[in-house]
Amino acid sequence: MTATLDIPVPRTAATVHDDPNGEITDAFGLVIVPAAHRGRYTALWQLIQARTRRSVVNPMPLAYAREYATVLARTGIDWTRDPHDLAVDPDARAQMELARTTLEQAMWAGRPLWWACGSWSTHAPMWSVLNIAAMPPEEYKPVTFADVWWLTDVLAAPAVHYDPRPVWSLCCAAPLCGDPAGELLTPAVLSGHNEDGDPLPMRSPERAELTAAAEAIGWGRRDAHHWLCPACVTAHTDDSAW
């Protein structure tokens, strides 16, 4: 039988809650626990059978352990079975080998086991407003149509221009980016700050502008379509000799 990995496409939160045996995963019977060596925490994590406490894979960073468990959950294999039975089951062995190969390739590349989405999104064209009464003139761009109305009310001499170019935004493509306690994960979006210091998603008709801003604050580009936010770059960095 040829094994194939059924990688989940939707961005859904992992099943994460407290359990005396470890962090419960989507793979029933498998939990995640800290990896220890000679009684000391190694900063890595293990995926083990809750019943036997046997490890099913070498220790790894937590993000990879969670993703790996999700992949194993989609194989259809009963991971609560006796480890010897799993070891001699050709389908289970093939699925495990394929999952490990996928894991090794992802860890080598510093990326997740699968991508949840493309990082680039397009949005409707926006506007720019120039306050010609200021010295020097102040330009607000890009702004939404709603902001145009607000700016024309507060500026002394506004000049409004429509920019027909579509604008871009950039989000993290990691499948488990966001708060794992939520029902749906909301990926990080490249953001700046408004004049009050509140986060403000960055949008621009120039992808190069967003690329430069992302790289300046630690976002990582993995290919032309997929980026990782700084937290997910760290989560998918393996400093061990896995």
Verbal overview:
The protein has 242 residues and is α+β, with helices and mostly antiparallel strands. The protein folds into 2 domains: 23-109, no CATH class; 120-235, no CATH class. It contains 6 helices and 12 strands. It has helices spanning 62-73, 83-88, 90-109, 145-154, 207-216, 230-235; strands at residues 23-24, 30-37, 40-49, 120-123, 127-131, 138-143, 158-162, 167-170, 191-193, 199-201, 220-221, 227-228. It has a 3-stranded antiparallel sheet, covered by helices on one side. Helix 1 (62-73) packs antiparallel against helix 3. Mean pLDDT is 83; it is low at 9-18.
The class by helix and strand makeup works out as: alpha+beta
Biggest sheet: strand arrangement: 1-2-3
Report the span from N to C terminus: 29 Å
From the alpha carbons, calculate the radius of gyration and give it in angstroms.
Answer: 23 Å
Helix content: 25-40%
Structural domains: how many: 2
Strand percent estimate: 15-25%
Number of strands: 12
Q: Return the string of H and E elements.
A: EEEHHHEEEHEEEEHEEH
Detail the poorly predicted runs: 9-18
- Give the overall shape, derived from the CA principal axes: elongated
Number of helices: 6
| Main pleated-sheet profile | 3 strands, antiparallel
Average of the residue pLDDT scores: 83
